[in-house]
Amino acid sequence: MKKYCLDLSVRHVERLNDRYVLLKLTTGDGTTLPEMAAGQFVEIRIDNSPTTFLRRPISINFVDREQNELWLLVAVVGEGTRRLANLKAGDLLNCMLPLGNGFSQASDGSSILLVGGGVGVAPLLYQGELLAQQGVKVTFLLGARSAADLLLLDEFKRFGRVLVTTEDGSLGEQGFVTNHSVLNEERFDMIQCCGPTPMMKAVVRYARQSETPCEVSLENMMACGLGACLCCVEKTTEGNLCVCKEGPVFNENRLLW
User: Mapping DSSP to helix (H, G, I), strand (E, B) and coil, where does residue 225 land?
Assistant: First the structure.
C-alpha cells in the first residue's frame, strides 16, 4: 500500500476524559484521504516542541469516508501527546501514513471477537466497520479500569455487539477481559486483539487453549515507522522483526509468547 507524507488539517478535537482525546483530521486541500487498512498507524511530527524530536506513532482509529476524516485516539502520556491534545481546529499536522500491516479480513458469516484494552481499543473500531460491511458477526470485548475509562462505546455499537469488563465492576462484568463469561459460553472463528502486552498474552493463551486463530497488534516503541531505527524489534519464530514494518499486527503463531 502506497505511503504518503501529508499535512492534514485538524477539523475537530474532542476531549473524551482527562486522559484521552479524539482528533479528527482531513486533507487541507479537499483531496480524498488515501486508502488505509484497519490496524495500520500514522507517524505524526510534533512541531515547536523542544523536547520531542521523534514522530509519535498513533493507531488509525477510524476512517470516515463520507466526511473525508481520519480519526486518531490519543492517550495523553507525555509532552508530545500533550501538544496533540492542545491542538485547535485549523491546525496542521504532518503525518506519514498509512504505515505497517493491518488485521486480516474475514468472509460473510464468520464470527469474529475483537478484544481491546485501554487505548488499544483504537484500531478495533475501523476493523469492526470493515468486518460488518462484509457480513461478519462482530463482537467487541472491551476492558478498562473503570466505566470512565471505556471509550467510544456508542461508536462501537454501530458495528456489532459490545461486551465490557471493568476492574472495579463499575460497568459490565468485573475483572479482566479474559475473565468475561462469553469466553466460556461461545466460540469464535477468530480473535483479533490490541492492548497492553500482559492482556494480549492472556488472550493468546486463551486462543491457544481453545484452538482459535488469533491476531494481535503489538505496541512496541516505534520511532521511525519504516524499519530503519530498530527500536521496535520483536523476537519471533522468523527471527528478530521490526514491528513497524512486519506488523504491528501478527498472527500469534509467529510470536514467541
Answer: coil
